[in-house]
Write a structure and sequence with these properties.
Blueprint: E1 6-8, H1 11-19, E2 24-28, E3 42-46, H2 52-68, E4 82-84, E5 99-103, H3 110-123, E6 127-130, H4 138-148, E7 153-156, E8 159-160, H5 166-179, E9 184-189, H6 193-198, H7 207-223, E10 230-231, E11 236-237, E12 263-266, H8 270-279, E13 282-284, H9 290-306, E14 316-325, H10 329-336, H11 338-348, H12 356-363, H13 367-378, H14 382-387, H15 391-396, E15 398-401, H16 403-415, E16 420-425, H17 433-444
Parallel strand pairs: 1-2, 2-3, 3-4, 5-6, 5-16, 6-7, 7-9, 8-9, 9-12, 12-13, 13-14, 14-15, 14-16
Antiparallel strand pairs: 10-11
Length: about 450
């Protein structure tokens, strides 16, 4: 007979209990893997470890899940089975504070950028997104960050789905997660046809179907429940005999990865957002205007959540903008710095009819401006295109202004469901970037 499950929030206590044969409910705002051998089972619940209500709810829900688990008891040489508890029940409070994240800029130097992350980690930064685009690969940077940081979560922002095989994505995520002691987040996205076909020479096709299958394959690899097999529309593992030598066979990843590596999807299209709400742990939109988000994405989010597995925690959302806090014209100038980027994306990222960001601008209600911006930008009139960006849109995607303005924007983000405030800090006056991170960390409470 099994001992009653215990609820704990630290990995050490959980590992000891698992070794003794006790089932464990890991209650934490930020799930971490537990590495231990033993017959105990492990369930992960996202909640407040200091909340008596959360602890009681977690214990009750874990008991139900463990009771339904009729699989054989783990052997001492095997890691514990991981069961992610459904934590979307309305009766369970979600008290975790908003997290602070930012996208890493490393155009100048890997090591300089990494040293800045170390300082921002001390100031309260919770997550860093590492982009790839068509510059140096992001995996090298993330591995280096894992070695020099201790607490900050390291996220790919994003790895394109076309440039690596699904199993290589899974292996890469497993390696980075192990190297960072469970701090890795796999951010996936389709990128765009200009980069995928122009730089990589790979056909940009079926982004929705490929994304879905890639996530399925990654989670199969991490679970290690059986040698990997997948028969989908876009991926076949092993490769069918008539497509190769015929010598391929199902294999199981050699290492024992964390089976619950978080997967986020970067998306702004209706179907992509719906997919993120259905299968991903988090959603990474761009140019997120919280006051307009409900009108633009409500139906997509609701459609995805209606099909979401009960074993996935509620969808997390990372959104924000340029962050600057001050009272003078210098802060207004920082806000205006967003115009060229908006013009680039809305006007120049893709041809007419294939520019996702232009479509988003239209869905925000700026149809006329979106058309004018694109016409001007594609004719080489970039400054004129930037001048056509609506002031309301510039302010809507910004966190630059007096402290009261920034507080209002943070409140609007929270109201729209944002869990991670994604900032691009720009200090003004004698401020430093770490000081700015520390200030906004206090503001999100």
């Amino acid at each position: 007979m099994r001992r009653p499950a215990i609820v704990c929030s630290d990995a050490g206590s959980a590992a000891a209990a698992i070794r003794s044969g006790t089932d464990v409910v890991m209650l934490t705002a930020n799930p971490h893997p537990v590495t231990a051998s033993g017959p105990g089972r492990l369930a992960v619940f996202v909640g407040d470890p200091d909340s008596a209500a959360d602890r009681a709810a977690a214990a009750e829900m874990a008991a139900e899940v463990f009771a339904r688990d009729t699989s054989p008891q783990s052997h001492d040489s095997e890691p514990p089975r991981h069961v992610r508890l459904p934590s979307a029940a309305p009766s369970i409070p979600r008290k975790a504070p908003m997290h602070i994240s930012m996208t890493l800029g490393y155009a100048g130097s890997f090591k300089k950028a990494a040293s800045q992350v170390v300082e921002m980690e001390k100031a309260g930064l919770d997550m860093v997104w590492v982009p790839e685009a068509y510059s140096f690969d992001s995996v090298s940077v993330m591995g280096y960050l894992a070695a020099v940081t201790e607490r900050v979560r390291i996220a790919s922002g994003i790895l394109p789905i076309y440039t690596r095989t699904p199993t290589l994505l899974a292996m890469t995520a497993a390696g980075l997660d192990a190297l960072s002691d469970g701090r890795f987040v796999l951010g996936l996205g389709a990128s765009g046809p200009q980069v995928i076909e122009g730089f990589h020479g790979v056909a940009y096709d079926a982004p929705l179907g490929r994304t879905r299958e890639i996530i399925e394959i990654c989670r199969k690899v991490w679970a290690r429940e059986a040698p990997l097999e997948h028969e989908g529309r876009y991926y076949h593992l092993p490769l069918p005999e008539d497509q190769g030598t015929g010598l391929g066979k199902p294999l199981k990843i050699i290492g024992r990865p964390n089976p619950d590596i978080p997967v986020w999807i970067a998306a702004i299209g209706e179907k992509n957002v719906s997919l993120a709400a259905e299968v991903a742990d988090g959603w990474l939109p761009i140019f997120f205007v919280p006051e307009k988000a409900r009108d633009v994405w409500k139906s997509s989010l609701e459609a995805g959540r209606a099909k979401r597995s009960a074993h996935l925690a509620p969808l997390q959302i990372a959104a924000g903008g340029v962050l600057a806090i001050g009272e003078n014209d210098e802060v207004t100038a920082v806000r205006e710095m967003g115009r060229p980027q908006l013009a680039l994306y809305i006007g120049g990222m893709g041809a007419k009819g294939t520019n996702f960001y232009n479509t988003l601008c239209q869905r925000y209600g700026y149809e006329k401006a979106a058309a004018e911006i694109q016409d001007l930008y594609l004719c080489g009139k970039k400054d004129e295109a930037a001048a056509k960006i609506p002031d309301e849109l510039v302010a809507g995607v910004s966190l630059a202004g007096p402290k009261s303005f920034v507080a209002e924007r943070i409140a609007a983000m929270k109201e729209a469901g944002v869990t991670h405030l994604n900032v691009t800090p720009v200090p003004v006056g004698d401020q430093t970037v770490p000081e700015l991170i520390s200030t906004v960390k206090e503001m999100v409470g």
